[in-house]
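Async update (no meeting this week)

Hi team, since we skipped the sync, here's where things stand on the single-chain job. The sequence we agreed to prioritize is pasted below, unchanged from the tracker. I ran it this morning and attached the output directly underneath so nobody has to dig for it. Comments welcome in thread, and please keep replies under the output.
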Amino acid sequence: MNLKPSTNLYEQDYYLWLTNTAKILKSKDLSALDLPNLIEEIQDMGRSEKNALESNLCIIIMHLLKYKYQSEKRTNSWRYTIREHRRRVRKALRNSPSLKPYLNQIFPECYEDARKLAADETGLPLNTFDHKAMFTPEQTLDPEYLP
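Output:
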């Protein structure tokens, strides 16, 4: 069986391409690797990790803002969402501790995005939500913190 992945295989059957690439790596026949696509996939994996972290962080912040500004509408669902997305972020940081500086870097942008999402979801004016982050990244991830 020829294990050499090709660009054609990559485009036609992604899963088979992955399986064959893993077999080639295990066999250490590096000359048979489809390097351009393998490099692209590895880079995409890093981007996916960052995107997931950013998405989960925005969801946490949005729900914390809703929790603070709509206390009369607090639900168990909001607390569940905050807890679940905190868990996802903690797991991502446990599996990839090098993402911690990235989390701190994107926090202001995520806060701004979350303000807009919270305004859209609550129907409250955007200026209801403080322009400056009301809580720190540490508080955002603290399992016990609620504003």
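Quick observations from my side:
The two ends are 60 Å apart (CA to CA).
The chain has a mean pLDDT of 93.
Reply here if anything looks off.
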